[in-house]
């Protein structure tokens, strides 16, 4: 079957988007399938919102086709599109004198008559959606007098009760605190899983992208440069290249960002292991103190942090005993350091050389 002829979900085929006559991105080929979450990632200004706004026809298409359940949206009336596609945008709407519940209820308008009168079933869906995003406490409050995060949840409820097969969300978590970020992303997964909804959204939190997305599309300012499952996209240095950052400043596997450390000759030697030294690495990084770390197994949980922040890491091969040569290297570096911090309390048979290093630092009066 041809990519664009899939009957369910949303497909963009050689889609061209931009503002006025100016094309910003071209050859955008995306597919949002029922029950799956497609996430757009990319740096600020790369075109994620432009794509999403063009999909929902807030912006005029500059070429190509968007298929909605197999039918080109260019051939569909707005009301027909609204029954299949709902959108949550970051832009604030400011309806005067409306309660949050009333705002959510506008999501039912595609199904009501011209007067916009909701029946019992409509209100049931409105209240279910409010419950789903945990916005009960603000339901009766004025929409203009709630916080950004509350507003974001209310707008999601509005899209949910529109009860469409496809849900488009532009940065649905941008204003939310950590609890609600998790909560909303959980709800989004639930909508995909339980209601078989096709979700297409943009997200900045790369650690969460990996957890919530079935497919990730990289938007690079001219097109969608890569598309694939998170395990493929968050591999190697693809994400770092997309955002124009150094490889070591983002741990793709964990989705963790690292601020650059001071890479001058080390003043401090940190003996760590098992994650215990991570707070020390961060403190030294904040204080701009160059440090060495070791002897660390390359599969140690703190190894990626150490490699990002330390000016020198003495590394032992994973699943192999530490070697004398590594100890000798560590001793040389320790000789040039003023102090040594040891966060390791228990020395097992596989890090006896670190114990030796610690004793040496103690003898030299360097141990803090
Ligand atoms: N109304 C507009 N008219 C003309 N150009 C615009 C308009 N809005 C955005 N742009 C430009 O379009 C490009 C893509 O912007 P867009 O908002 O799609 O990026 P984004 O990936 O969503 O960014 P962010 O992560 O910052 O939200 C940018 O260069 C931006 O300056």
Automatic annotation (TrEMBL):
It is found in: Cell membrane. Residues 9-246 form the ABC transporter domain. Keywords: ATP-binding, Cell membrane, Ion transport, Iron, Iron transport, Membrane, Nucleotide-binding, Transport. CDD domains: ABC_Iron-Siderophores_B12_Hemin (cd03214). Transmembrane segments: none annotated. This is ABC transporter ATP-binding protein. GO terms for molecular function: ATP binding. It is a peripheral membrane protein. Pfam families: ABC_tran (PF00005). SUPFAM superfamilies: P-loop containing nucleoside triphosphate hydrolases (SSF52540). InterPro entries: AAA+_ATPase, ABC_transporter-like_ATP-bd, P-loop_NTPase, Siderophore_ABC-ATPase.
């Amino acid at each position: 079957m041809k990519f664009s002829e899939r009957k369910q979900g949303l497909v963009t085929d050689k889609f061209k988007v931009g503002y006025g006559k100016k094309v910003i991105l071209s050859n955008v080929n995306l597919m949002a399938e029922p029950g799956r979450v497609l996430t757009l990632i990319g740096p600020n200004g790369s075109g994620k919102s432009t794509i999403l706004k063009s999909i929902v026809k807030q912006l005029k298409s500059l070429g190509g086709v968007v298929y909605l359940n197999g039918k080109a949206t260019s051939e569909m009336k707005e009301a027909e599109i609204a029954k299949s596609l709902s959108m949550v945008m970051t832009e604030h709407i400011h309806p005067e004198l409306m309660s949050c519940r009333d705002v959510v209820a506008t999501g039912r308008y595609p199904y009501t008559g011209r007067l916009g009168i909701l029946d019992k079933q409509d209100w049931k869906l409105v209240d279910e959606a409010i419950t789903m995003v945990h916005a009960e406490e603000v339901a009766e409050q004025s929409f203009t007098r709630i916080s950004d995060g509350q507003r974001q949840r209310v707008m999601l409820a509005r899209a949910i009760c529109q009860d469409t097969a496809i849900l488009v969300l532009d940065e649905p978590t941008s204003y939310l605190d950590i609890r609600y970020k998790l909560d909303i992303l959980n709800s989004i997964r639930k909508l995909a899983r339980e209601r078989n909804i096709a979700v297409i959204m943009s997200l900045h939190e790369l650690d969460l992208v990996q957890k919530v997305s079935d497919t990730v599309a990289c938007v690079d300012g001219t097109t969608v440069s890569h598309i694939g499952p998170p395990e493929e996209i968050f591999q190697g240095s693809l994400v770092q290249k997309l955002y124009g950052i150094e490889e070591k400043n983002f741990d793709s596997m964990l989705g963790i960002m690292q601020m650059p450390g001071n890479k001058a000759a080390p003043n401090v030697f940190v003996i760590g292991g098992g994650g215990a030294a991570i707070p020390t690495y961060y403190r030294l990084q904040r204080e701009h103190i160059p440090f060495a770390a070791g002897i660390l197994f390359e599969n140690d949980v703190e190894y990626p942090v150490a490699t990002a922040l330390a000016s020198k890491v003495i590394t032992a091969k994973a699943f192999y005993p530490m070697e004398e040569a590594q100890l000798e290297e560590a001793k040389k570096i320790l000789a040039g350091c003023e102090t040594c911090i040891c966060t390791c309390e228990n020395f097992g048979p596989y890090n006896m050389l670190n114990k030796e290093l610690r004793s040496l630092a103690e003898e030299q009066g360097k141990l803090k």
